[in-house]
């Protein structure tokens, strides 16, 4: 496929509608268990995080929402935070609950055997629903660190039953038009078993709860070699893919920039999405980033991430699906594969630059942001106070 100088109209339409949600924690300091490095200009409160997230949107035109983590992003007046976001041309996206940082949750939260601990964890989620409403959000995202480290430590079955009961109570708290999304992860911080380890477990709980419960797929949460696009196709088929946590990884849950480690995997995933029209807003899939930027500039990294997804989506949209269907019907294995590869290898960057300029955006958002002086300005302004970090 030759390099197109302009995008076909329907591809341009789909890209113009497509949005990505950015995580508030991606703008704070992060690191590994060995070290968290500070960076001049790192936000000191949720307002400054939103201001930084707004830069990602201003330069890409495709990232109008920011997810919050509660209580990391706790403020006195959440409606004030919502208003501040609106002034920055941003909306508050998903509210992420947090039951993994308090001593009380050492042996579990929604799955804990101790009734008082479980009660506290359920109440925390109900409080998240209040935060959601105060910020104008409609989505609660649940990722649980629950699990065990040793065989026999606790009953796997009993924990599932307690989880189902706890989720039921949270689900009862939803109003119409709201939803919860349940994330799965096969290991970490628990290393023997995790209570929501895979898409099957998440889906079973969601099916038991009802239509307002859907699965979150974090691309870093699978065993190496897992065919993630298969999971995407299957969840979409059941109308239960609520959201994505995009990132990339080489080894475990690395939370690196999406499309950095394996751009072809991102392409395969987005092609499954495109085939079921799930990239369009009407499908209701929330495409989020869940990343940490330990070494690199955080805003630049977020801009790069949005661009990586946008470029890869453009390639997926360029697949000649008619020709593909024809090759598939004839069982022409190599022609079918070649059609996909043609789209994957197409250089969409010039066409995307033109597309952005038509929308009044910089042709190269990454370079434009670097040259804007924003980072130098906030580094000079944000003195005193404590920089916010993953976990604070
Ligand atoms: C944890 O591994 C999950 O990916 C969560 O979605 C997320 O990273 C966490 O809630 C953010 O701190
Ligand atoms: Zn995640
Ligand atoms: Zn993760």
Automatic annotation (TrEMBL):
Q: State any single GO MF term.
A: L-rhamnose isomerase activity
Write down the Pfam families for this protein, in alphabetical order: RhaA
What EC designation does it have? 5.3.1.-, 5.3.1.14
Q: Which UniProt keywords apply?
A: Cytoplasm, Isomerase, Manganese, Metal-binding, Rhamnose metabolism
Top-rank taxon, per record: Bacteria
- What this protein is called in its record is L-rhamnose isomerase/sugar isomerase
The root-end lineage is: Bacteria, Bacillati, Actinomycetota, Actinomycetes, Micrococcales
